[in-house]
Specification:
heterodimer, A: about 350 residues, alpha+beta, Heat Shock Protein 90, 5-stranded mixed beta sheet, two-stranded antiparallel sheet, 10 helices, B: about 250 residues, alpha/beta, Rossmann fold, OB fold (Dihydrolipoamide Acetyltransferase, E2P), 2 domains, about 30% helix
């Protein structure tokens, strides 16, 4: 039994969520306000009075909520070093101090309704506790989903079709162009090293671009340079930006599989990566062949990437896809993160 | 077709990837000692393969499944309708569905990367066996064809399904009507109705009309038992709607 307890207490258990994340902030605002509203409804006999009561409680509660969110985001690194219990103590101390200041500064702002420090302190403790429990439960609920998504991602990442066709292409080069065959095998090895590795953390975009290049080198060998044309637009790419691993390559693979292979003439795949303020933008384009038949598989790969984006960034990343002018476009926007920040 | 032993087998390679065609050429060159053969030509998709077959005498086609425009599966179904079809050996890197279907219907295939021994074994096998039946290929395919094949004077002519206005059964044949002209195909209207259920709707015991070709409906008391006729876009023809298919009129109006 002792063992079990110690496992639960190890670092991977409870952790504060990242309060700099827009989704976490929005969730906190919603949860806290629902709790304040519930408290207001319970405190007064009828619903009409509840609106006024809600306003009274929000006047005292809201500044504490917003200040806490800002503090949690700003002091994230420091809190992380303190551990969960330490952070919790620091947070509550901060909130109670704030509550004390507010009660003494504006405690008598409503003529008919006072707010004592004791009442506000209980409110703060209960609401903070419930909100953190909510985030903990949410993290626990999502943990298996993350593992599942990873497995799913592994399966969707590379089509077996690609592996066998590539080996076949390399075999054809062995006799006539041994040097090119060597290079292709090296690319294939690099590609599979990354594909087989356990990648949970974010990776530099420059690595992702290199991986996509190696993938495209193999595909070009197979399909020929006149059928698969690639246009890179990455001069303005911040190479240090961190992105979820293996997101670009599957998108490129999708573009080749659905946009180039079904057409005898082939076409151009465009890849554009740039920074837009505090966001990193990845945009891919490929032609839509007249009689494309694999739309179901395409939707699955796109849904897979969308899910992984959501797991990493919640509401702060977006993915849009559309068909216009005979071309299929995917645009992904995600927060611009670097290892230093 | 069944070849006599020692006769030189004329082979066509069909694959959209140049390295894959090169690889087959290398292997066939090595197989030559054990299996007398000649490489007739190469094709980059199903359409090119059918063009070669119209031009040259071919005994065996090495046919990749995944090709642009007309894939191997569809090309094989057109080939099977020829009076003296060549033997077909499918090649594929990975296609779960097709492989299962081939196993069920006893159709020969080779997995890429292809080994010399397997290639020679497959060549020997198809030389000894009867060609795969059209029925087996239809059963193995999971998608409707994009074309119907018209066999005129020993040549295959393809009619795009998208261009067909209507199909009408008459005695042994089915008349295929496009905006330009009519063709005769040797297929059953019932099979066509099943295969192209999304494209065509039955208006009469002997007639399927393309949904996109319906301009409207007109009263036609004399000729049609339901009192209605379907008006075809592009040609303006009026085809009788039978009493049993009268619901089609309501569905489209």
């Amino acid at each position: 039994m002792g063992n079990v307890a110690s496992i639960n207490q190890t670092g991977t258990g409870i952790r504060l969520p990242n309060f700099c994340n827009l989704g976490v902030m929005l969730r906190s605002l919603v949860v806290v306000n629902i709790l304040i509203a519930a408290g207001a409804v319970l405190r007064v006999p009828d619903l009409r009075a509840a609106a006024y009561e809600y306003m009274v409680m929000a006047t005292f509660g809201e500044p504490i909520l917003i200040a806490s969110l800002v503090a949690l985001c700003a002091a994230r690194r420091w809190l992380h070093a303190l551990g969960y219990a330490g952070s919790l103590a620091a947070l509550l101390a901060f909130e109670l101090a704030l509550a004390w200041v507010i009660v003494y500064a504006v405690g008598d702002v409503f003529a008919d309704r006072g707010m004592s420090f004791g009442r506000l302190a209980v409110l703060v403790l209960v609401v903070t506790g419930i909100t953190l429990v909510y985030f903990d439960l949410r993290a626990r609920a999502l943990a298996p989903a993350i593992a599942d998504a990873r497995i799913q991602a592994l399966q969707a990442r590379i089509r077996p079709h690609f592996l066998y066709n590539s080996i076949n292409a390399v075999l054809s080069l062995m006799r006539s162009e041994p040097r090119r065959a060597e290079r292709a095998l090296e690319d294939l090895a690099d590609l599979f090293r990354v594909l087989m590795s356990e990648n949970r953390t974010l990776a530099p975009i420059a690595d992702e671009v290199e991986l996509a290049r190696q993938y495209l080198a193999i595909e070009t060998l197979r399909l020929g340079e006149d059928r698969l044309r690639v246009s890179w637009n990455i001069e303005a790419m911040p190479g240090d930006a961190l992105v979820p691993p293996l997101m670009l390559q599957p998108l490129v693979e999708n573009a080749v599989y659905h946009g180039i292979e079904p057409s005898p003439e082939g076409g151009e795949v465009t890849i554009d990566v740039h920074r837009d303020g505090r966001q990193l933008v990845m945009a891919l384009g490929n032609p839509v062949p007249a009689e494309s038949r694999q739309s179901a598989g395409n939707r699955m790969a796109i849904a897979n990437i969308r899910e992984r984006l959501q797991l990493h960034f919640d509401a702060e990343a977006s993915m849009r896809s559309e068909v216009s002018g005979g071309r299929y476009h995917v645009v992904i926007r995600m927060p611009y993160l670097t290892a230093a920040a | 077709m069944i070849l006599a032993q020692a006769e030189v087998a004329r082979i066509l390679i069909a694959d959209d990837e140049a390295p894959a065609r090169q690889r087959l050429r290398d292997l066939l060159d090595e197989a030559r000692e054990r299996f007398p053969l000649a490489i007739v030509d190469e094709a980059r998709n199903g359409r090119e393969a059918l063009e070669v077959l119209n031009r040259e005498k071919v005994d065996i086609v090495l046919l990749d499944i995944r090709m642009p425009e007309i894939d191997g599966m569809e090309a094989a179904r057109h080939i099977a309708g020829m009076p003296q079809p060549p033997a077909i050996i499918f090649t594929t890197a990975f296609d779960n569905y097709a492989i299962k279907a081939f196993e069920v219907n006893a159709i020969d295939y080779l997995l890429k990367p292809i080994r010399l021994e397997r290639l020679v074994a497959a060549l020997n096998k198809v030389r000894a066996a009867a060609p795969v039946s059209r029925e087996a290929l239809d059963a193995a395919a999971n998608q409707p064809r994009r074309h119907l094949s018209v066999h005129e004077r020993g040549k295959i002519h393809l009619v795009s399904v998208a261009e067909i206005l209507y199909l009408r059964a008459e005695l042994k044949y089915v008349t295929v009507r496009t905006a330009e002209r009519e063709y005769l195909v040797e297929e059953s209207l019932t099979h066509l109705e099943e295969e192209f259920a999304e494209t065509f709707v039955r208006v009469h015991r002997n007639c399927l009309v393309a949904r996109h070709a319906i301009a409207g409906f007109a009263r036609n008391a004399e000729e049609s038992e339901s009192g209605w006729a379907v008006v075809i876009k592009a040609t303006g023809e009026k085809l009788p709607v039978s009493r049993r298919q009268h619901h089609v009129v309501k569905q489209f109006r």
